[in-house]
Amino acid sequence: MHIIEVIPLTMLPTNVPQILSYFFDSELSKGAIVEIPLNKRKVSAVVISSSSLEKEKLALKKVDFQIKKLLKVVRKDPQVSDYQLKLAVWTAKYYCAPLGYTLKTLLPPFAFKNKFPLTTFNVVNPQFIHKSTLPACDVGNEDKAQLWIYKTNKLARCLEPVIDGKVRPTDGTGGKQVLIMVSEKSSINYFSEYFSKKYKTAVVFSGLSNEKLYDSWQKTQSGDTDIIIGTRQVLNMQFKKLGLIIIDDPLHEFYKSDMVPRYNAVALAHKVAELNNSRLILASVIPGVENHYKIKNGIYELKNIEPKPRVDIEIIDMAQELKDANWSIISKKLSKEIITGVKNNERILVFSPRRGYAGILVCGNCGSAAKCRQCDTAMRTHRSAEMILVCHHCGISEPLPEKCSVCGKHNMKTVGPAGTQKIYDSIKAMLANAGVKTTVLALDTDIVKNETEEEEIVSEIAKSKSSVLIATQMIFSHRFYMNFGLIAIINADTLTNIPDYKSEENFFYQMEKLVSFMPDKLLIQTYNPENKLIKKTALGDYTDFYDNELKLRQALNYPPFFKLIKLTFRHNIKEKASYAAKITAEKLKMSVVRFNLEDTIKIIEAVPAYIEREKGLYVYNIFLKVREDYQDIGELLKYAGPGWIIDVEPRSLL
Fold first, then answer.
1. For 460-504, how does the pLDDT look when each residue is reduced to its tens digit (9 = 90+)?
2. How many whole angstroms separate alpha carbon 9 and alpha carbon 647?
3. Which of 150, 420, 468, 581 sees the fewest Cβ atoms within 10 Å?
4. How far is Cα 184 from Cα 188, in angstroms, rounded to an integer?
5. Per DSSP, which regions of 252-409 are E strands?
6. pTM for the whole thing?
């Protein structure tokens, strides 16, 4: 008889044991798959240890529960490696997530299916691997992660010595593999086309069939591929000889998962690099505040591979346009530049921070906005076959009301920034009035319903001699392929007025991504031309901005000095949501005092979320600010109890 310890591959509350004990007739290998009884359910689990009953008799006498027997062995041979277990344990601990569900997330979707047999191996212990530099690429100190301001052809200089075996000539293993992680699937094609001409490549993303994903998995695990390219799922692969990880656009919001274990793929990539003893390069258009801090403190090494292009940036005062009786959303300057650009066969990008037609619908009599019946937020005006209202949070749509639901008056009108659809109409009308003909297209999630439609629009713009594209952030996915002679931001104030501590940093980031399209001229329309942030952006002076931002964040206990943790509770009854939030906040405060952590953990009072009601549920948040060097936050969060969503390092405070 043997005692078998397992990790159930299911969601368990974080305040209960994540490793369970069962007994079985024989010893089982670590990594084997079994089926266990759990709360009247049958659940798959991974074996992590097996010991004889004789050795465990003394410990078993002290337990006050009955150990059950395993139901059956699903796979006797190891299906999960030590490497995968280490990665799951780190992820679950860092992001305060259930261990079993985290492990299930990191395993491939075809795991344990007879059609797709798996073999496991352990990564060589890093301390036994010889280190040397990358002389052909001159990347500097290899003990530091590096942040590059780059172009793809420059990165290729670092791939060659890694793949060709010139990095560690004394370890006898030959060439190494390179992992390129991208934020979106659309970027995979670019890197694959660029590098597959010379190297064996494999791709990984969530939309792949099990057959294709299994093929990439096998090639990666066997070492039969040089470069593995993929979205954040690529980090779950088991590598044979990983030598270098490159993260493209590390500031992109898509690297943060919205689902348990809610990990940040950039942080996870650091752990993957550590476990595989591989180099790490972050390739970005701009460092970001937290990475700037790491560069200043010697944690990262900055490599300015490519000088920034010179762009003629002009700020247009839209308040003055109104004074000059121009009521259009298009300034006179922009109108002139678009017409001139089209006549000169230029491609023009008009960047729209908002999708849809206009802003919100309000009553001209009482000022009430038309709100979503499920969410505590104003609905946005969109145009399909006719004008409709759409909630950007739950997705429901309604016809435009004829009268105000509050006062009953028939005086409804749209207010707020124009969206993609209205900008499209305005530019079409402007060009028609000027007698200029050209291709005018729009690109946003309302217009593009699938990848085919998106590719058709991008292809049409790319092959046109002159064209105008009105686009939201979707255009950033195609920055490798496209260039524009003129870029204009219709309403820059929309990007700067978001009530979040990262809003100004994100504005800087988006501006730099627009500059990466290599325009000759960039026009910024704003109602606040004296805004210091917009002026600094026009100058490209991110160093001064980052230094000032770091001083402010240090004073307010924000990242990178403290780690943010967001606790969220939802309930369909407001009073119950509010009560649960207040009780939990008090429990956490008492625990902080009890453990003498007042200087280490700061707790912000429980407050309604920025959008208090969403999809019929009332939402309350509690924010914790935790010193970066504190490692035991999971123990404190056990006091939160069931029903709370834990988000470590959330995208924003909203």
1. 888 887 889 999 988 888 888 788 999 999 988 888 878 888 988
2. 21
3. 150
4. 7
5. 279-284, 300-304, 312-317, 347-351, 360-363, 380-383, 387-390, 397-399
6. 0.89
